């Protein structure tokens, strides 16, 4: 217990979310109450990990409706809430809470149909982080929660300056047999392997308990751990021997000497040069002679 019997604490509940923010846990929503109550909540509580004390945030702005079964994640001091349900309706909306300023914003950025009990995973990517949503129950026909269908779609939220949703389609494997896909499900667990850009899901519920494990390679979405922003100078002689500076982010992911590849005509013609990582935002190299490869 955080503070003994008289401490101010959240009401008993389930199907809520907690997100780590600095040295605190931010709790939102869920349903429950005293005894056998099943009341939906949209309150926000913060547990200070250092002193084990709860406080309830009195927030302003435009908060989400009470709900449970939603997804939540924290990024740069903001907690995001997506989807969920209550006894009256289901949701596919996206809200953001600025924790320090206690300010709710409706981002007006819905994805797909209302869904709940899905899995969520925040993934570091360059130039902008991604959020993956998988599965859950979805109200495909607008018939309410009782008619929700187990879903297996993947949604991707780009957290760049222009936030946007995408719903990538699976790519067939090279055998020509098509891509095997997991059954639609809810209450599954998902995690991310940063080294190989892979999402893993395990188990869940689809009118039976599931014990299968699936891997989804998302390297084409998250990209490499670095990004090139610009090259100085932007033009040079085809005879090569021009010193250039490649500006970007994430270059420390490949320390030391690197290969810089120059390509033209859709990548059909290319040449390579040895480069040196100066710092996380700069690579220097000398251009190769391309008069006989890429051409003038």
Write a brief structural summary:
By secondary structure, the protein is mainly β. 1% of the residues lie in helices and 46% in strands.
Protein model, in words:
- The protein has 296 residues and is an all-beta fold.
- 1% of the residues lie in helices and 46% in strands.
- The N and C termini lie far apart (73 Å).
What is the spatial order of strands in the main beta sheet? 8-12-11-10-9
Oligomer: single chain
In whole angstroms, how far apart are the ends? 73 Å
Helix content: under 10%
The overall average pLDDT, rounded, is: 89
Low-confidence stretches: 1-6
Global geometry: elongated
Largest sheet: 5 strands, mixed
Helix count, DSSP H or I runs of 4 or more residues: 1
Q: Give the DSSP E fraction (strand runs of 2 or more residues).
A: over 45%
Name the features.
mainly beta, five-stranded antiparallel beta sheet, five-stranded mixed beta sheet, elongated, 296 residues, 46% strand, 27 strands, disordered N terminus, single chain
Question: How are the elements arranged and paired?
Answer:
Elements: E1 13-14, E2 17-21, E3 24-28, E4 31-32, E5 39-40, E6 44-48, E7 53-56, E8 60-61, E9 71-75, E10 78-85, E11 90-98, E12 103-106, E13 115-116, E14 119-123, E15 130-134, E16 137-138, E17 149-150, E18 154-158, E19 164-166, E20 189-193, E21 198-205, E22 209-217, H1 219-222, E23 227-232, E24 243-249, E25 257-264, E26 269-279, E27 282-286
Parallel strand pairs: 8-12
Antiparallel strand pairs: 1-4, 2-3, 3-6, 4-5, 6-7, 9-10, 10-11, 11-12, 13-16, 14-15, 15-18, 16-17, 18-19, 20-21, 21-22, 23-24, 24-27, 25-26, 26-27
